[in-house]
Structures are given as C-alpha cells and as structure tokens.
Amino acid sequence: MNPETKTCKKCQNDFTVTPEDFVFYEKMHMPAPTFCYECRSRRRMMWRNERSLYKRKCQAPGHSEDLITIYAPEKYVVVYDQKYWWSDEWDPTDYGQEYDFNRPFFEQFKELFSQVPQLALSNSNAVNSDYCNVADQSKNCYMALGTYKIENLSYVNRAYESKDSVDVYVSFGNELCYECVSCSDSYHLLYSRDSVGCRDSYFLYDCKNCSDCVGCTNLRNAKYCIFNEQYTKEEYEQKKKELGLDSQAGLKKVREQFEELYTKSIHEFARIAKSVDSTGDNIIDTKNSHWCFDLFGGMEDSKYSHWGGLQAKDLYDAGPGVGDGGELMYDVTDTGIQSADIAFTNVVYGSHDVRYSVFCHGSKHLFGCIGVRSQEYCILNKKYSKEEYEELIPKIKQHMMDMPYVDKKGRVYTYGEFFPEETAPMAFNESIAIDYFPLSKKEAEAYGYPWREGEKTAPQITIKNEYIPDTIEGVDDSITKEVLECAHKGACEDNCSVGFRIIPQELEFYRRLKIPLPTMCFSCRHVSRLKHKKPLRLWKRKCQCAGEHSDNGKYQNTTQHQHEGHCPNEFETSYAPDREEIVYCEQCYNAEVV
C-alpha cells in the first residue's frame, strides 16, 4: 500500500497517511482520518478541561450544595457531586434512548449528554484532595491536574508518582521540587528544566545525576558547580549564599544569567531514552512509536500519542492520559487501565469494545454511551441483548456514513471521526487545546471552535504586588487570609485571575524550602511553565554543528567529532526552525555532553 496525501477538512493543510497507518486503521476497522494530526488533537483535547473551574449547584436528588466543577454555569449539563455520581442511587441506563435513524448520530449523542448526570470533577480515589481534576489516586493534594499516583502536591500539572512538590509540570518520580518542567527522579530541585536524577540544586537545564549546583546546563555527575564553573564545597556554599536564592531579588538576577547561559548551550534534538525506532520528545522506554510526547513506563507500536504509557500498545491519536495496559486504542483521551479495542472516547477505564462513549467504566460492547458502569451491549445508554446489539451496530455505522453530521462551517463528520467540536461541553479556551495548540479568539472562531467570554469579578486585593514580601522569612500564618495581586494584574492573555491566595499547605512548603512567596497567580505561573515546553510537533532539521563550533558561533565544541566540516545528520525535532536554541544531533550532542 502506498502513502496517501490528504487535505485536512479544517485547516486545508496537506497531511500524509503512511502504509503503517493504514495497517492500524484496518486493525480498528476504521476509515483513514480526514483531518490532520493537529486538528485531530485540538478536537480531542476540547473534551478535556483541567483548570477552568466554576461553582454550580449539585443537581442530585435531595442535594443543592455548591460544587466546584469543570462545567460553566450556562452549560447544558446536569452535575452531580463525586459521592452521589459513583453511588447506586441512580442508574445511567435509565436515560437510555432508542437510536433514531432519521437524525445524525452526533446530534443524538449531544442530546443524551445534556440529560445524563456528569461528575463535577474527574477525580478518582482521592484522599483529602477535593480540588483536583483529571486525577487518580491523589492524597493530600490541591489543584493537581492531569495526575496519577501523587501525594502532597499543589498547583501541579502532568505529575506521576511524585510527592511534596509545588508548581511543577510534567513530573515523574520527584520529591521536594518547585517550579520544574519535565524533570524526573529528582529531590529538592528548584527552577529547573529537562533534568534527571538531580538533587539540592537550582536552575538546571539538561543535567543528569548532579547535586549542589546552581545555574548549570549540560552537566553530568557534577557537584558544587555554579554557572558551569567548578568550585570546592566551601567556595560553593559561600557563593551560593551570596546569590540570595531565598529572595525574589536574588532569584531574578540568577534567572537572567541562567537564561543567558541556556541560549549558549547545546540542545539534543530530542529527549529519547531506552527506546527503539521511536520519534518525538521526552519519551522513555518506547518501541516503534512515532510523533509521541511525554511517555513513560513502556509504549509500543504507537503514533501521535501524548502523556501516558505504562505498558500500552497499538495506540494512535491517544492522549493526554492514556495507557496503563491499554491496547488497540484510537482517538481517545484519558482512557486505558487495562482497556482494549477502544475508539473515540474520553475517560473510559477497564473496558473493551467501546466506541463514541464518555465517562464509562468496567464495561464492554458500548456505542454512544455516557456514564455507564459495569454494563454491556448498550447503545445511547439503552441495554440490548447480544444479538440485538450485534445486528444494530453495522446499521448505525452505515447510517453515520449516509447521514453525517454537518457543522456550521459545512464540514462533514462521519463514522471514523471524533466528536465534532460543536458537541464538546467545553469552549476552546476552557480546554487544554489552547495550552498545546494555541489560537487567538479570532483564529479559533474562524476555525469554528466555540469561545467563552467569562465574566470576571475583580477580587478585593489586600496586598499589592509590590508589597509581597521579598523573602519567606517573617511571613506569618495570616498571609493565608490575604489576597495577593498577580504581577500581570489581568493585563496578560494567560487567563490571569488578578488576585490569588496562599493555602496553608503551600505556605508550609515555602517555609520548609525557604522559598519566597510567588508573585503571579496560578494560571499565569502555569502558562509561564508551558512556554518552556516544546510543542507537540516535529520538524525536519539539520544538525547545527559546524565542525569546531555551532552554526551561530555561540557554542565552541570541546572535542573532536566523527564528521569533518559541517555535520550532515538530519532528524525530526520539536525545536522549530525559527527558535534560538542550538540543536545538535545525537552523535554531536553525545560527543560534547555524555
């Protein structure tokens, strides 16, 4: 079978379906996609809202308490609290409806979604972690989003098996970490990025097995270094003290010098470890997986997948939040945990043979279901016999081809495509789609993505930004009752909350690590961390090693490389061609760093 070039229905850009892709689609008995990778990703991510939270009343019978939920007050959904939703007090199959062959499937699904009660937050197996979302197995956590098996974390996103940390993004096996991005297996690491196995250090980039270092890049097994210069233990302790790392003023100076060093350092084209025949970035222990990002714990024969792993196999267009034994899954988000043969789902665990379903658990043979648990042979939440189900499913698939859903822009959605954006319960700027594939309001609306203009109530600021203490020393417990002004003061495009509070757990963490109070609200801090994360895309580029130095002359090679003159190697990388970083191939990078 030959590669096939298609034109995306949404952005009109061309994309290629390879022979290997066709093999996977045949396994799933699916037609090839008609939207490109990026548009497919945005569409899927619009079903995942992690940090746009609202207050609504619980609508469970006999309940009226306030809930924190991912659904804005004007949304067309019924919202239940966590305990009632998971209870046996109601049955999702009571909302079952007959399939109507006179109406498009997606129209019927949206109608059903407005009737079946939804979980206020997606927060499973939580202990003292009420304000967490898209989280499983959390203990003593607050605003932990997109996490799995964590403890004592606050204001984190994408964390796995980590504890006692604040303001981290993409964290594997970390403890006592703060303001870190894509770091793993580290202890007491602060203000760092892309580092592994480090401890008692500040402002590291691409360091491994380092301790007691400040402002360093590209180091291995180093100790007592500051801005890549070696010191004795006594010299290091004295110079570290002079840097004033316990104050905002000192941190500002160190951060500026660190960023300058960062631009002069080399960058490996991709962070890929213990992997075979795989492309992407920040992936560990993968095999035959391509265009994959932030994967760990084993992934095989997969493509276009993000944030997951844990012994998953045969996944396409999967994530974020996929794996843990999942197999043969297509165009899914937050799906897995021993699931197999799954397509077009959001939050489906421990299930088999499921299509076009959301928030379903421990079930099999479902089509178009919502909230179903421990059931089988259901269509639009209505139960059927095995024979009835198997007779109906082929007819429904054909009906979706013969009577497709047509959106307001005239785009056609048939069987084999994920839910149209118009059916999603989130606006584009409420969902994580805006984090990973950002668009302005004008751009989003041109594509046909819904956009929400929220009404913001200005908080009563009690401490102006310029009066936030420079150090944590002397800050007493009363700070938790104050409203601090964000440095952006609502003037940015980062969904700034203008004011923010310090929670007791967070305050204790700052005191323990002698960290000054933050000067920005959580949303602005989160977006600032995202800016350090490379996009979920790949570009074909050439190595920038020119022989004795980098192309731009900012980096001088320290060893002889295997090539003469300019390196001829090419690769796929998440570093876009217009970025300032100096990007080396694996051979040239290893010659300099490893």
Give the end-to-end Cα distance, rounded to a whole number of Å. 41 Å
Average pLDDT over all residues? 95
- Poorly predicted regions: none
Helix count, DSSP H or I runs of 4 or more residues: 12
Specify the biggest β-sheet: 14 strands, mixed
How would you sum up the global shape?
globular
Residues in β-strands, percent: 25-35%
Percent of residues in helices comes to: 10-25%
Structural class assignment:
alpha/beta
State Rg.
25 Å
Please provide the count of β strands.
38
Write the layout of secondary structure elements.
Layout: E1 4-7, E2 14-17, H1 19-27, H2 37-45, E3 54-57, E4 66-69, E5 79-80, H3 82-86, H4 105-113, E6 118-119, E7 123-124, E8 133-139, E9 142-160, E10 163-172, E11 178-184, E12 187-190, E13 199-205, E14 211-217, E15 223-226, E16 229-230, H5 233-243, H6 248-264, E17 266-268, E18 272-273, E19 280-284, E20 286-290, E21 292-296, E22 299-303, E23 306-309, E24 312-318, E25 322-323, E26 327-336, E27 340-349, E28 352-361, E29 364-367, E30 376-379, E31 382-383, H7 386-402, E32 405-406, E33 412-413, H8 433-436, H9 441-447, E34 484-485, E35 499-500, H10 504-513, H11 522-530, E36 539-542, E37 570-573, E38 582-584, H12 586-592
Parallel strand pairs: 5-6, 7-8, 8-9, 9-10, 10-11, 12-13, 13-14, 14-15, 17-38, 18-19, 19-21, 20-22, 21-23, 22-24, 23-25, 24-26, 25-26, 26-27, 27-28, 28-29, 29-30
Antiparallel strand pairs: 1-2, 3-4, 15-16, 30-31, 32-33, 34-35, 36-37
Structure description:
By secondary structure, this protein is of the alpha/beta class. The chain has a domain at 465-530. Helices cover 19% and strands 31% of the residues. The chain is built from twelve helices and 38 strands. The strands form ten sheets. Strands 18, 19, 20, 21, 22, 23, 24, 25, 26, 27, 28, 29, 30 and 31 form a 14-stranded mixed sheet that branches. Strands 7-8-9-10-11 form a five-stranded parallel sheet, with helices on both faces. The longest helix has 17 residues, at 248-264. The chain is globular.
